[in-house]
Amino acid sequence: MRTSSNPAFRNLPQSAGAQAPYAGFEQPQGGVPGSGTPQAPSGQADRPMTLDDVVMKTGMSLGVTLLIGTITAIWAQGQIAAGAMGSVTGAMIGGMIVGLIISLVIIFKQMVSAPMTLAFAAAEGVFLGAITGVFEMMVPGVALQAIAGTGAVFVVMLIVYKTGAVKVTPKFQKWMIGAVGGVAILMLMNLVLGLFGVNMGLRDGGGLAIIFSIVCIGIAAFCFLLDFDMAEKAIREGVPAKFAWYVPSA
How far apart are alpha carbons 227 and 118 in whole angstroms? Predict the structure, then answer.
C-alpha cells in the first residue's frame, strides 16, 4: 500500500486488503489457485473500508449532531427569553472546547471508536445548537436557511471535487488546516472578550463582520474537499473498515 499524502491517514495501520487477500486462503502456491493454507476469515473490522461504511458512520454522526443541536437550540431560545444569555454563551464555549479536544485526541492519538466520534458529534451539536438558538431569536427562520444553504454548498463542492476543478494537494491541506485554526482562535477570542464588553466587530453586522462571515463560509466550503479526499483515499488504499468512524471527526 502506498503512503497517503493526507497527514490524517499517514500513520494508520496498513490494511491487509492492500497486501494480502481477504478470501479464506493465502496467496496461491506453485501456480495452483487456492492451494494455500486456509486462514480464519477476517473480522468485520479488518476488512477494507467501503463507501457504505463511510456513508453509514457519517450519517449516524450527523444524526447525533442534528438531534443534540435541535434540543440545544430550543433550550437556548428558552434561556434567552428568560434573560440567561450567560448560560447560552457558556454552552457555546463549552461545546467548542470539548469538541476541539475530542477531535485532537482522535486525530493525533488515532483513537478510532464509535463512542469517541459520537461524543464529538454531540459536542458539535451543543455548539451549533446554541449559536442557532441565538440567531433564531434574532432572525426567525434563519436556522432552516442555514441548513438548506449547507446542503447546497455540500452538493456544489462535491461536484467541484469530482470534476477536479480544485485539486486537494498537501499544500492545499496545510493552508486549510491553518485557516481553520485561525478562524477558530478568532471566534473563541470574540466570545471570551464579548463577555467583558469588548467588541472585535466580527459579529456586529458591520463591514468587518460581513467580510469575516464570507471568509468563514468559504473556508467551511473548501473543508468539504478535504473530507471527500480523505474518504476517497481511505477507500482506495484499503484502510480497515473500523476507520470509517475516523472520517466524520478528522
Answer: 17
